[in-house]
Specification:
Blueprint: E1 2-4, H1 12-22, E2 27-31, H2 38-44, E3 53-56, H3 64-67, E4 68-74, E5 77-82, H4 84-90, E6 98-102, H5 109-118, E7 127-128, E8 135-136, E9 143-148, H6 158-161, E10 166-169, H7 175-178, H8 183-191, H9 203-216, H10 218-226, H11 228-243
Parallel strand pairs: 1-10, 2-9, 2-10, 3-6, 6-9
Antiparallel strand pairs: 4-5, 7-8
């Protein structure tokens, strides 16, 4: 696996992702802190006109939620409904689409085994529809982007990591994601902190704080988003930044 780490370039990790996808790599793992836009990028970057399919892994995720399950359609009648992985395999017209698998480190047991099958190489991957007995294979344009908030990829099952030749550390939001923030919040959002240096602040929190302070004022917004204990530190950090 090729690990692409952070450099001093603000948008380096995002450029790396764009270059990898444009080069035709169809298996990419995005890792790093939460709230930097990994899922958004996976759902939208390099995706065609057909929306990407998404799975969010939990300890309770079942294989049926990945490949499909039987559903009642009337009295004593059941039909097989394909799951997001198979829909992504097919894509539009059978050419394949994008499958996004979030929080992959939380998948376990039955779900992990199914994900291994769904993300196998195109030459090996196949699945049989239990209703029609049709053998299904991923389309030529099928791609998978998995995300995780772990910092150490040793927490990911080796058999799963082996299926993803490139892993990119996404440790900062894209510049376009910062554009909608007020000027004084862009640098802190890029650094991922506001107030106590040990506290990581996600991009979602910056968005919420910026919106709330327009309506409720800075002090009240800081209390609501960051909590009473951290609010004063946040206000101090903003005051110092304004002077600088």
């Amino acid at each position: 696996m090729t690990l692409i780490e952070r450099t001093d370039d603000v948008n380096s990790c995002w450029r790396d992702l764009a270059d990898v996808l444009k080069s035709g790599i169809s298996r990419v793992l995005l890792y790093g802190p939460s709230g930097t836009g990994k899922t958004y990028a996976a759902l939208h970057h390099g995706v065609g006109s057909v929306p990407a399919e998404r799975l969010v892994c939990t300890e309770d995720l079942t294989s049926g939620e990945i490949t499909g399950t039987w559903m009642p359609v009337g009295e004593n009648r059941w039909e097989w409904r394909e799951g997001p992985a198979i829909r992504a395999w097919r894509g539009s017209g059978g050419v394949g689409g994008r499958l996004v698998v979030d929080e992959i480190d939380r998948a376990s047991g039955d779900a992990l085994s199914t994900l291994l099958a769904m993300t196998d190489s195109p030459e090996s991957a196949r699945w049989r529809n239990p209703e029609t007995s049709e053998w299904v294979r991923p389309g030529p344009q099928f791609s998978v982007v998995m995300t995780t908030n772990v910092d150490d990829l040793e927490d990911i099952a080796p058999s799963l990591r082996d299926r993803f030749p490139v892993a990119i550390c996404i440790d900062r939001p894209h510049c376009s994601a910062l554009a909608s923030l007020s000027d004084d919040l862009r640098a802190p959002a890029l650094a991922g902190s506001l107030g106590p240096a040990s506290r990581r602040v996600s991009l979602r929190s910056f968005y919420a704080f910026d919106q709330l302070r327009r309506h409720l004022g800075t002090s009240r917004a800081a209390q609501l988003v960051f909590g009473e204990d951290a609010a004063l530190s946040v206000l101090d950090a903003l005051a110092i930044a304004a002077i600088a």
